[in-house]
Design a protein that fits this description.
By secondary structure, the protein is mainly α. Helix 1 runs antiparallel to helix 2 and helix 2 runs antiparallel to helix 3. Helices cover 85% and strands 0% of the residues.
Amino acid sequence: MANITSQMKRNRQNERRHERNKAIRSELKTRSANAIAAAEAGDADKAEELLRIAQQRIDMAVSKGVLHRSTADRRKSRLTAQVRRALG
């Protein structure tokens, strides 16, 4: 445990950011899974809408500093490809 005041504050900040980042990453996984599930069910319109929302959330994670821009681009590309394959 830190004895230095500034380090104790830094630890508190890190904990808050960790929880916030964890929530954002969890939402990304959920949104992606929903888009893939809709595509596998054959609902093209719903899959496209969920894909668009998932991509928006990925971009939001970049703007908040949770993901790197290249990582986000790669995830969006792979997610789009998965949805397209599932739709046939």
